[in-house]
Amino acid sequence: MNEKIFARQLDNGLWQWRLADEQGNWLNEDCFTGDNEALAESLGDRASPVVHLILPGTNVVATSETVEPSIKRHLAKLLPFEMEEQIIDPVDDIHFVFGPVEGDRVEMLYAHADCVAGAIASLEEVNCDIQRILPDYLHLVREPVGAILVLDEGVLYCRTSDNDGFAIDESAAPIVVSQLKHEYDFTGVIELVAETEELAEAMKSWLPAKWLDENGPEIRLREGNFWSSISPLHLCPTFNMRRGRFARQLPIMRWVKDWKVPGYVAAAAFVLAMAAVSLEYFQAKAQFDRVRSEIFAVYKQVAPNGRSSDPVRAMESMVKGQGGKSEPTNVMMLIDSTAKALKNTPEVNLTSMRYSGDQKELRVNLETKNFSDLETLRTAIAKMGLAAELLRVSAQGEIQQASMSVAEEKS
Predict the structure, then answer these.
(1) pTM
(2) 11 three-class SS
(3) Regarding the domain with residue range 141-229, which homologous superfamily does it belong to in the CATH classification?
(4) pLDDT classification of 193: cutoffs 50, 70, 90
(5) Could you tell me if 127 and 41 are in contact, meaning their C-beta atoms sit under 8 angstroms apart?
(6) Which parts of the sequence belong to the GspL periplasmic domain (predicted)?
């Protein structure tokens, strides 16, 4: 399951976290609370879980600034120095994230770099893959037109638009909220959320007077807290503080750790494969040496006094040196002619035959009851233009046995 973990950093060094599935449903009804060790234990054996880091809104400022046309192309480098008078700390110590320029204004978030770095380091210690970083107030889900104010654990979280909001201590909330300049007509909705409806009702007294006009926005009261007012499906699309100096890096060390054991296995497999190949090589080499020895032994029989590093080629040369040339054989013609003559002389039986390549003649052994049949066969073969000669004739009782040679007529 591709889970996402929403980890919220608290001011007292603790964390709150809640898990969501890839469809955007919470997997647990309530959030968990604990330190880094408790968070690591809760994650269990998950490999590099995806985390959305929720920073304390009291440490992150959302604002907008007028942009001069001359600095639009180099906004990220120049605008921070244009704001030096508004920021107490040195600009180099501040982490800025900018939204798109609309007209002559740009919306932005900024926070002290140490605050962001500390939160990231704490989660990376427990092997988390931090993909998004936003302040808590930009996680609040509000109506398309309107604002949401959540009072939880002595802190007021307020979101007044898609990219604007703040978080302040409850003691300062009445003054800050009463001075808000945002305007909403009767189509807007102001949602007040607190632990009890009585507290939510009391929060109405903090609102600007124009929000309470008869034609002002609808005021809704609800019991709840921070976690009941956010959703995994409603994330601010404009900002992600996981950029710039805090952009995600290639997880080289995690890759090394993940591949250490497979690397050992691959190395062992490679060694075994090399051992097997080496064994096959030596076996093949031994077989080759044995065959070569046998070839050389044959060569020594042919040429006892010969010396050669290549006995096969030496024997081929010796054969060629004999001057032997292959000539076409006449065996098929002799057999065919003899067979035709025997077919016309059924009284004679063929008992065996042998062909001599050197003499180019066919010798056949025959049996018959009458000698005249042998002469008839010889005459029939001779009429085919061949030389047929009875070499030996003997009698075995009533059977006449004879040997005949058949060859081509010598010119």
Answers:
(1) 0.60
(2) coil
(3) GspL cytoplasmic domain, C-terminal subdomain (3.30.420.370)
(4) very high
(5) no
(6) 257-401
